[in-house]
Design a protein that fits this description.
The radius of gyration is 19 Å and the shape is globular. The protein has two helices and 15 strands. It is mainly β. The strands form four sheets. Strands 1, 3, 6, 9 and 11 form a five-stranded mixed beta sheet that branches. A four-stranded antiparallel beta sheet has the order 2-10-4-5, with no helix packed on it. The longest helix is centred in the first third of the chain and has 10 residues.
Length: about 220
């Protein structure tokens, strides 16, 4: 089991050689917390959450990637262990639970993974002679953010169109060549609420969205 806490960036991976050409699926368990727990839950509730960590598969021709699940996707009525957060009702509207407990340690994360929580994955294609790099990475920091992941599994479906999964990802992109363009810029206060471009002094979070699907998040001090 791996975790990265409050890192500006990370990229942990393994390269696989000699795989048969064809279609595969990568499954794993993992989550990302976008900053401290209260801020992450507020952004999740309001639809402004930046999921900066992603699982990826890179070949010589293509990059397949998917953000790790939000830690807020799983809230339980009971704790996995004593350090888990108990969050207010206002952050999980519509939940049937009387209490909203969210994991807050590697132990709790491990227990959640054993329960099948935070399980995700995606399909990808390998062409003849390609090497495959499988990993998890993050290139932007939200203060206090946390990524945790484990249990990677690889499944082979075969080659040819008859074996192509129906839900192959739409977000397939070529390896980064520096041609991505800026699509959108959004600003947020430290409370997670979206604001207009700031003019008052203070700290703000700037989220840039790029045409290749990347998001960059920067904490900026306006004087």
């Amino acid at each position: 089991m791996y975790e990265f806490y409050n890192n500006a960036s990370f990229d942990i991976s393994q390269t696989l050689y000699g795989l048969n050409p064809g279609y595969y699926r990568l499954d794993y368990n993992g989550y990302y917390r976008a900053g401290d727990m209260f801020m992450a839950a507020l952004a999740h509730r309001d639809g402004t959450e930046a999921l900066n960590a992603e699982a990826y598969v890179r070949t010589e021709s293509t990059v397949f990637a998917k953000p790790l699940m939000s830690i807020c996707e799983v809230e339980k009525p009971d704790k996995y262990e004593a350090a888990d957060f108990v969050m207010p009702d206002s952050l999980f509207p519509g939940s049937p639970n009387n209490y909203h407990c969210v994991v807050n340690s590697m132990l709790a994360g491990h227990l959640a993974f054993e329960d099948g929580e935070y399980e995700d994955g995606f399909y990808f294609q390998v062409k003849e002679g390609e090497t495959v790099r499988v990993g998890v990475r993050k290139s932007a920091l939200i203060a206090g953010d946390w990524a945790c992941f484990d249990d990677f599994r690889l499944h082979y479906y075969g080659d040819g169109e008859e074996n192509r999964p129906e839900d192959m990802p739409d977000g397939i992109r070529s390896p980064e060549d520096g041609t991505a363009s800026l699509v959108d810029i959004a600003w947020y206060g430290l409370n997670g609420m979206r604001v207009d471009e700031p003019s008052c002094p203070g700290f703000y979070i700037k989220v840039e969205r790029w045409s290749d699907g990347r998001r960059s998040v920067t904490k900026i001090l306006i004087r």
